[in-house]
Amino acid sequence: MPQSKKVHKTPSYKIIGIFLAVLSLCLFETKTALAAITVLDENTGTDTTSAFTVTRPSAGTGDFIVVVVGEEDDNTFVPPSGQGWVEGDQLASNAGSTDLSFGFFYKLITNIGTEPTTYNFTGPGANDNTSWWVASLGGVDSANPADETMSDNLVEYIDVATTSFSAPSITTVTPGAFVIAGWGVQTDATVSMPGGSWATETNNLASGNIYMSVASQTFASSGPTGNVSITAETSATEVVAGQFAFKPATPPQAPTNVSATDGTLTDKVTVTWTKSSGASGYYVYEGANLIATLGDVATFDDSSAPSGSITAGTASATDGTSGAHVTLSLSGEGTTNGTSRTYKVQAFNSAGTSGDSNTDTGYRGVGTISYQWQRSAADSDASYSDISGGTTDPYNDTGAPADGSGRYFKCVLTATGATSQTSTADRGYINTPPTTVLNTPNDGGSTTDTTPTFNFTATDADSNPVEYNFQLDTATTFDSQGGSPLLNKVSTTDSGFTAGHPFSSGSAAEFTVQAGDTLSPGTYYWRARAIDPTGSNTYGNFATFRTLTIAVAGIDLSGTIYQSSNESLAYDCSGGNSKTILVRVNGAGSFSGTCDQNTGAWSTTGIPISSGQTVYAYLSGVSVAGSTVMVSNGSAQANVPIIVDRVVLRDDVDIHRVDTSQQENFMLSDHTQEHKNY
Questions:
Q1: Span 229-235, mean pLDDT?
Q2: 442-452: string of b/e by CB count within 10 Å (b at 16+)?
Q3: Does residue 28 surpass a pLDDT of 50?
Q4: Which residue in 91, 240, 351, 632 is deepest, having the highest Cβ count within 10 Å?
Q5: Strand partners, 523
Q6: Which CATH number fits domain 554-661: 2.60.40.1120, 1.20.950.20, 3.20.20.330, 3.90.850.10?
């Protein structure tokens, strides 16, 4: 059955050993080399079954566990498989009157976090008694723990007539080797330990007829250890004894190839190195400061390395340079990597600490800058919100107020590995296009001028100079010419505009229809709009169109009233015999002239007559006779005769005339109320 940790019968040197163990742990933590291999902790136990369980003493990664076991039969001990156990030596004896087995086993703890807390050995017989001692050793060379071969170290004493039993001398190789001597005795219950420099680990640990004793000693010099004996009170039936030496660890060499990342990582600096043989852990320094104590690894992430930073820069927003957007941009923005650190690494094990490795500098980097523009809610440096899609530099903000109201803009800059920063703010606004008003002619106006002049005024919000686009058409949709207006003129390239473009904002400008574009009589629609090339360079809306009628220019008609068809006797209109001559064009109008001379002369002016129209000139108050009907060629006529007793039919287009007497029957269509069909 397992027993509690024993109280040694030789307290003076055991207290010293415990002190050294505690001291060694303290020195381990402060990286001071251990003076020698030490027993860190130990347990004992007994059992009477075919398997026994050894409780692991306190230990750490890199320490060794040693088990010394004896049994009152000649069986072979089997340590747990797959745990790295090494058999130093074991001997099963059945040559004497009694049987005896004795064994020595050890293993390295590679990871205390996964190391079992108990070890299950098998091999003893079902009812055989077993005793064991288990200890944890610190300061053993982890790569080459055995300082000598350990094989065939055990010897047996069978039915000998002596009370002294020696564990034979072995030869150590390394100064400071730690030697364990063990004895399995059957059946003497009382033995004396060697004493002197040998420390008693356990004495007469009994289970049935097996009594086990263990002693240890550190040998400062290499060479033979000499026989070491226990003394029995009576002759033992059978004894197995032996010595086993452990090699002390030596401080490792300094790690090599220390390298630290230079900005490739944004959240840390990774330090790597080539491991040192025999090292159980590593110290990582930043300058002279210890920043990490590590196990058997070859990399360290320094998350405490200073982070990088962002310089947000100065924001700029355009002031009316575009009628569609405000252009936002930054200057002076950028990132700075984290402050550089200098790293070195030391290797350590239970024996001590290496010198310094090479040094290398490393620093945290900063990722790519991301942008998020913000716009104020009103014309003040406050109440900002993100602009959807505003994630580039520069960025055109089409969401700024179209009416030209000012807004403030700033940018939030982010990047992995740095704290976000916000730029300065700047005010900007969209340039509203010029507005245009039409001055003259008035809407619905009329003129006989076939090259009329149009007057208009454009005003730009920023008082930028303006250019004009003038359009005129016979359709209100301004597309009578296959989708285009009759006239579509721009002041930058076309003639007809007031000289001296570009034009001042708020000052009137004019466009005159050029001779090559002379307008025919009819109804026209006109409009204008403006653009500010140095500002938004965007046309404003057309002013609401106006209507203008081009009337036919009036012509003059004159002639003589005759008394007969021979046109030789003029009618005397003097002396109260005046006559009124009425003129109709295609049966319409109210034009008239007067004859009050004895010469019979009459005239009328400003009659709008086009070529091909029918003109009626007749004496007011007279029947059909006294009428002249002519097809006009559109030009003035000074020889239009009116014969009081005749109807004159005249074609000025085809140069033809017919005189008829009043007795002839003919029809005059579209005449006045004073002339009916005859």
A1: 78
A2: eeeeeeebbeb
A3: no
A4: 240
A5: 549
A6: 2.60.40.1120
Q: Note if the pTM is more than 0.85.
A: no
Contact between residue 30 and residue 75 where contact means Cβ atoms under 8 Å apart: no
Q: Is the pLDDT of residue 664 over 80?
A: no
Most confident of 96-110, 183-197, 422-436: 422-436
Coil vs helix vs strand at 13 = helix
Residue 23 phi, psi dihedral angles, 5° rounding? -60, -40
* Residue of 464, 482, 484, 463 whose CA lies nearest to 473: 484
| Domain segments of the chain as ranges | 2-246, 252-430, 435-550, 554-661
CB of 118 closer than 8 Å to CB of 134: no
The CA–CA distances, whole Å, from 482 to 46, 339, 471, 479 equal: 116, 71, 15, 6
Q: Is residue 216 within 8 Å of residue 39, measured between CB atoms?
A: yes
CB of 320 within 8 A of CB of 430?
Answer: yes
Roughly how many angstroms between the first and final C-alpha of the chain, as a whole number?
Answer: 159
Res. 666: pLDDT tops 60: no
Strand, helix or coil for residue 18: helix
Bridge partners of residue 224, in order along the sequence = 171
Annotate 208-244 with DSSP letters as a single string: TTEEEEEEEEEESS-EE---EEEEESS--SEEEEEEE
Q: Are 498 and 433 in contact (CB under 8 A)?
A: no
Return the pLDDT at 321: 83
Q: For the domain bounded by 435-550, which CATH number is listed?
A: 2.60.40.650
Element (H, E) at 118: strand 118-122
Pairing of strands 155-158, 453-459: unpaired
